[in-house]
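Ticket #4471: structure output looks truncated?

Reporter: J.K.
Steps to reproduce: submitted the chain below (306 residues) through the standard prediction queue, then opened the result file.
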Amino acid sequence: MKSHRSLLVWIALLSLLLGPTLALAQDDDEEWETYLSGDELLTFSYPAEWLVLDYAEEEEEMGPPFPFVTLAPDQETLDRLEMDEDFLEGQHAMAVVILPAPFFTMMMPEALPEEPTAEDYASQVALMFFGNFEEAPAEGAEEDPLGGLTLGEPEEVELGEDVTGSLVTLLSDTDEGVVIARLLDDDLIAVVVAAGYPGEFSDDLRQIALDVAASVEYTGTADAMMEALLAVPEFELEESDVDPATLDGNALIDERCTVCHTRDRIDQQDKDEAGWTATVDRMIGYGADLDSAERQAVINYLVETH
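Returned output as attached by the reporter:
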């Protein structure tokens, strides 16, 4: 299950008291614990024997700017997830993510309808996590925009009394699993991703994912999440004596700025110089490899053409 590094805000004790209908959904034979994030905004229940990795707490400087917690039955699987490596046989894991609705509008403005449903969010998150848009199809092959990923039709799932969500199944050469999306309110979406080695994803793991999704509570706000997302991280810029005018900003974007997202995300946007400067600096803060001259060449190109 890919963590897709450049993801995006992290998120009290009263939330530990889960509603009785949600608790009843869990297997009586399974021992469960309640996770509480370091900022005490995110809680959810999970199998007690599983291990937990919170990217916000482990990677304070470079972690994604939204709550992103991964879980696995063993340390080896967690380590592979952290290194963004594929599952081995017998491995499976899960992730709990909280996303603000404005994030989808910003990153993929044409991908969702005007009033998205949980079904819409589940499908888009599946594409974000597992779709392979970066690799061009082999010569002579038909273009495959999903990179070998097969998604099932979204289905509504009952998570508890008056609590529903949407579930999408997924299958690729490296992953098999489900994505569950649940609307916490109009601006916040709770997502649970459960996946494992192809051919080994079980009904038991699917049910665990449903139980985890039912238990998710988050007391933060979408506004705070977006503010953190749009903030420019601190970074050290390598100085260069090269004249930016001699560099090809378009080529630099193709080479350096599509490592973690598609070119379409850039080309769909229209910003002034201040807007593009903030965007490029934010991407450098997230790890884009640009020196001072290359940074200015990219900004100049974007301002002139977008």
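Triage note (M.O.): checked the attachment and the full token line is present. The radius of gyration is 20 Å.
Status: closed, working as intended.
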